[in-house]
Fold Phosphatidylglycerol--prolipoprotein diacylglyceryl transferase.
Amino acid sequence: MLPYPQIDPVALAIGPLKIHWYGLMYLIGIGGAWWLASKRLPQFAPEWSKEKLSDLVFWVALGVIAGGRLGYVLFYDLPAYIGNPALIFEIWKGGMSFHGGMIGVLLTTWWFARRNGKSFFELMDFIAPLVPIGLGAGRIGNFINAELWGKPTDLPWAMIFPPFSDPQQLPRHPSQLYQFALEGVALFLILWFYSRKPRPTMAVTGLFAVCYGIFRFAVEFVRVPDAQLGYLAFGWLTMGQVLCVPMILLGVAMMVYAYKRGVYLHTANPS
């Protein structure tokens, strides 16, 4: 069994101001995505300025945060937030939905593409390889918050999370780290190397949907579902899995359509 590192969720406190690691992980994800996007910009849109790229990152980040929070409220715990709407703004405590954030990104990307002379999927194919940076950072934030841990296990890398998080004090799967490895590291490598060569428009976005959906669906088998929801179907399907099924199917359909259509509107990543 591995010891759980006791990390204070508050990274820095200046008087009443508290800066939480969870929030810093979002800044790291957004900053890392912006840096990588700036390296890819000459191949994607050489006519775009760095200021326009900064505008894109701002709107996409806004979509992630607003969509992620509203998605969690709607998909995972609506009664609690209806009872106390002020909880919606306490994002440092966690409670973000990937699928809600994805919807927010889709909406802001569609709006930005229309205003800047790009097709929706052309811009999405540019953005998709950047997303795993934020996903990986977010899972580290979950780990520091000692939230979203897994089911009990006797595997040698099991961890006992703090009593405030797990009163049962059982050795559990560190499922946040599984998701960091899959949704962050593996997904980034898959998309980055795949997009190094020209691909038909929509294919990179489709591959993202397929791989994320599969990775998330798999990890949910060892992750404890949200207590307020439990299992939704067949005694084992979680909300995360239910939301991933259409995502995987849509991703496969997008890739098939992209290759049949065979339209190439963007260049590959730099080597």
Notes: The longest helix spans residues 50-76. The mean pLDDT is 91. The radius of gyration is 19 Å. The beta strands are 10-14, 17-20.
